[in-house]
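Could you help me review a protein record that somebody else here produced? This is what I was given.
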Amino acid sequence: MPVILAKYMGDYVGQEVTLQGWVRLKRKHGKIRFVELRDGSAFVQCVFIKGETSDQAMEDFKKLTQESSIEVTGVVQQNPRDGSYELLVKEMKIYQISEPFPITPKEHGIDFLMDHRHLWLRSKRQWAILRVRAEIIKACRDFFDERDFVLVDSPILTPNAAEGSTTLFKTDYFGETAYLTQSGQLYSEAAIAAFKKVYCFGPTFRAEKSKTRRHLMEFWMVEPEMAFATLEDVMNLAEEFVEYIVARVLDKRMEELKILERDISKLEKIKRPFIRMTYTEAVEQLHKLGSDIVWGDDFGGDDETILTKQYDKPILVHRFPASFKAFYFELDKENPELALGVDVLAPEGYGEIVGGGERSADIKHLLEKIREEGIPEENYKWYLDLRRYGSVPHGGFGLGIERTVAWICGLHHVRETIPWPRMLNRLYP
């Protein structure tokens, strides 16, 4: 008897199969009994009918509780009312009768749910979110692999900061100080001289004491980097990438989006070209919309929300004041006060999901910026070497997985976008 995943039941109509999973709920309707089974791949109705189902299985049905683990064998049939597939149960094996499940049936506050994250993952909503996340991650890898980018893993433990040293997690490294990485970008800049186009993909860490709905202490980023690339190349790649991810989710995860009650029509509008504007143009528009942002200040979450609610496509904001950008950005030759950076802001108020730009290829400029900012020059000796041996224009960006999942799924907070969120006051479970 084949043991199959529930999502493949359509291939076995009229045949006898075995499913293994957990009881989501059970109910009775007259003399017929029903179990909604979840097996990780789908949710399926299992039907118990006296005369068709064994007497033992009918008796064991009475014992079942939510989250009991079972194995059911029966015939796959199609429900004529809605076209869904269900299992007419012949036999049932019980692995364990679950204790009373703490998550349901009543409503719970977010702290309770986060304390029980290990159980909350089993809910239909969380199942759907994390399957969308898995599809987004697969889409990221497929996109770059299909375009001849080489995956070059960057280290998680680093001797120095990629950006501001005030948001680093420190740890002891056999008597030396090491930091959890904020970004793999600097290492990818080294790798492009070997492979031309690379990407890294992994966890990154920011010790930023923020409690906003967009921040986590540990999050995942995919970071492409390209040799012989300008800001324009970076923006074009970012547009193509975001469009690709959304299209993939719409193609492969429509059922999950329905469970999340996501407005699909908004995602269907994510087609190139996106909206582009300079930082200066964005500030001018924000002033018209009532923001009190001052030219020279970085965008806050409220500014991004105000701006993105004006459009139904992502916005690429580029050419920021160099004063608040990292030392490694190339400067705009037409206005050296501006850095050739770009942020991609997702619509519907979700804000920044991509940050990047063109990197400085000039060792003199980098040395000036390092000395200006008081950064220990010896920590970046290897990074400066990249400008001594075959330096070329180059650039790239980082896309935050959790913010992208939140946007595509239509979630209010990023805490639901990762299996085990690490937030300012949460390290458990």
Observations:
- Residues 117-416 form a domain with the BirA Bifunctional Protein; domain 2 fold (CATH 3.30.930.10).
- The radius of gyration is 26 Å.
- Residues 124-146 form the longest helix (23 residues).
